[in-house]
């Protein structure tokens, strides 16, 4: 159920800057983010060593990732930034992605631009904040955050010499009929310009997934619990094909084992072919052609390739 969404400008809720918003609507304190990200500096040396060791492994251990469609909620012009939350409330997630070249003995792809986007705790995407996420949820405009309706929970990071990027975000919520997921693209050959990433080509389009047990714990917490209804498990999702990490399943570690609200650290390695363009338009092993039908009530400016609510599971979506 979607409440009335006030039509505002792109700068709505920008009064508190992108990097300085106060977490509201659900009450996960900023201390939770500080706890989740406190080891950023000390982790650098370990992260570098791990990435180097991975890069030196044989090509037999490097897997070309399955590709799926980008779905109907992609937007051009995402910002290059590490923290994409913009004050959106939710369980903190530090996401570490390593990009490897499957054609060069798993060598790191330095300079690759990794782009991610996902829904908020109630199932809303920026740019499509009036689309019904299914079940019963408050209107996106009621979350109390300072987030920009066009940019929240979207962003790029450029890989370092070890092929590593890291994002600070929240665990996504759910929307009918999809499981908990994050969209991802890997670009090469472009450059940063005017705060975003321009040019080059897309080498990989995929989705990252969460273990059901983790998702279930999180969806019982505020603000996720304000979205009631039935969410889709991994086995019933029309995109995830059961292939584990090679199909996008994240490795997740809780910041505090007894308190999931403190956040998680997620990691995955994406094996790509830097010479091949793959926009995810239904191509790639394990794609299944899919992404799932979008929530009903999608706005009129939804991408023209978004399927109708009656589309079968073999058609593309988000």
Describe it for me?
By secondary structure, this protein is mainly beta. Strand 6 and strand 7 (196-209) form a beta hairpin. It is globular and about 45 Å long. The chain has helices spanning 30-37, 43-55, 212-219, and strands spanning 92-101, 107-108, 113-117, 154-158, 164-170, 181-193, 196-209, 251-254, 264-272. The chain is 9% helix and 22% strand. The chain has 3 helices and 9 strands; from the N terminus they run ααβββββββαββ.
In short:
The protein is mainly β. Helices cover 9% and strands 22% of the residues.
Topology:
Blueprint: H1 30-37, H2 43-55, E1 92-101, E2 107-108, E3 113-117, E4 154-158, E5 164-170, E6 181-193, E7 196-209, H3 212-219, E8 251-254, E9 264-272
Radius of gyration: 18 Å
Could you give a short account of the major beta sheet? 5 strands, mixed
- Strand fraction: 15-25%
Please estimate the helix content: under 10%
Mean pLDDT: 78
* Cα separation of the termini: 19 Å
Structural class of the secondary elements?
mainly beta
Low-confidence stretches: 1-60, 282-317
Order of helices and strands: HHEEEEEEEHEE
Q: Give the oligomer, counting copies of the same chain as homo and different chains as hetero.
A: single chain
Count of helix runs: 3
Question: Any descriptors?
Answer:
single chain; 318 residues; mainly beta; five-stranded mixed beta sheet; four-stranded antiparallel beta sheet; 3 helices; 9 strands; globular
């Amino acid at each position: 159920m979607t409440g009335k969404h006030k039509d505002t400008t792109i700068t709505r809720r920008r009064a508190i800057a992108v990097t300085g918003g106060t977490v509201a609507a659900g009450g996960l304190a900023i201390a939770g983010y500080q706890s989740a990200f406190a080891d950023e500096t000390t982790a650098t040396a370990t992260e570098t060593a791990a990435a180097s060791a991975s890069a030196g492994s044989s090509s037999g251990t490097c897997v070309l990732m399955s590709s799926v469609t980008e779905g109907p909620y992609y937007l051009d012009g995402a910002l290059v930034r590490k923290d994409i939350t913009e004050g959106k409330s939710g369980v903190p997630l530090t996401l570490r992605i390593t990009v490897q070249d499957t054609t060069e003995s798993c060598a790191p792809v330095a300079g690759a631009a990794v782009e991610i986007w996902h829904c908020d705790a109630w199932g809303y995407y920026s740019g499509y904040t009036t689309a019904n996420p299914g079940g019963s949820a408050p209107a996106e405009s009621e979350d109390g955050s300072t987030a920009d309706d066009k940019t929240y929970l979207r962003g790029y990071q450029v890989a370092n010499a070890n092929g590593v990027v890291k994002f600070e975000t929240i665990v996504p919520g759910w929307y009918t009929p999809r499981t908990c997921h994050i969209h991802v693209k890997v670009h090469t050959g472009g450059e940063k310009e005017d705060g975003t990433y321009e040019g080059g080509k897309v080498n990989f389009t995929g989705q990252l997934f969460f273990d059901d047990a983790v998702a279930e714990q999180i969806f019982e917490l505020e603000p996720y619990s304000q979205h009631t209804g039935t969410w889709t498990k991994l086995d019933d999702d029309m995109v995830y094909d059961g292939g584990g990490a090679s199909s996008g399943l994240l490795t997740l570690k809780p910041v505090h084992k007894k308190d999931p609200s403190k956040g998680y650290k997620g990691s995955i390695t994406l094996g790509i072919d830097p010479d091949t363009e793959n926009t995810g338009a239904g191509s790639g092993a394990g794609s299944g052609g899919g992404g799932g039908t979008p929530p009903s009530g999608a706005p009129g400016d939804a991408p023209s390739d978004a399927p109708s609510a009656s589309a079968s599971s073999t058609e593309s979506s988000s």
